[in-house]
Specification:
The chain is an alpha+beta fold and about 170 residues long. The protein has helices at about 1-20, 25-35, 155-160; strands spanning about 35-45, 50-60, 65-75, 80-90, 95-100, 105, 110, 115-125, 125-135. About 10% of the residues are buried.
Length: about 170
């Protein structure tokens, strides 16, 4: 009986470890990551915390599902910005970014869906927290409807209002 109990406990612990792993594959993460993300980066260092507006574009290579290249722009003011080129890939859920100058970033602590990308990473001794929104994909709430929804023309309306030409019947 004790042997059966021990075996069941080991099996239970094995099942528990599986339940804590992510079900999302690297391909799914890369698919959600692809596009342009815009938002705030909060950089904490010994002198305090500063905020930077950032725009990051992830492009996938045509022959790969989990890697690509992109552009990273940090905006410090209307005419004060820096743009960096990088290559990226996803491996076991971690997003690796390698810039042209050799600097590297590993993003391990994040949440990602098709609309939001938020998390944190370390840049040397500075912790960087980010909250970005996908600016490539548009949703209903991206538009200011002014408190009411407007009726748009339907296909039926379009056929009634279509101008006719004497040669076309």
């Amino acid at each position: 009986m004790k042997k059966l109990y021990t075996t069941l406990m080991i099996a239970m612990m094995g099942l528990m470890t599986l339940s804590f792993t992510s079900c999302e594959t690297d391909e799914e993460i890369a698919y959600d990551l692809e596009g342009t993300w815009r938002g705030n980066m909060s950089i904490a260092d010994a002198y305090g915390e500063s905020y930077v507006d950032s725009e990051i574009t992830f492009l996938r290579y045509s022959n790969s599902y989990t890697e690509g290249n992109g552009l990273w722009a940090d905006y410090y003011g209307p005419r004060d910005y820096e743009v960096y080129r990088f290559e990226w890939y996803v491996d076991f859920g971690t997003i690796y970014i390698r810039f042209e100058d050799g600097a590297r970033v590993e993003i391990r602590s994040y949440s990602l869906n098709s609309n939001r990308f938020r998390g944190r990473f370390w840049d040397g001794d500075k912790e960087v927290s980010f909250e970005l929104r996908n600016s490539t994909r548009k949703y209903d709430y991206d538009y200011n409807w002014g408190g009411s929804h407007y009726r748009t023309r339907s296909a039926d309306d379009a056929t009634e209002a279509r101008p006719t030409h004497p040669r076309i019947k």
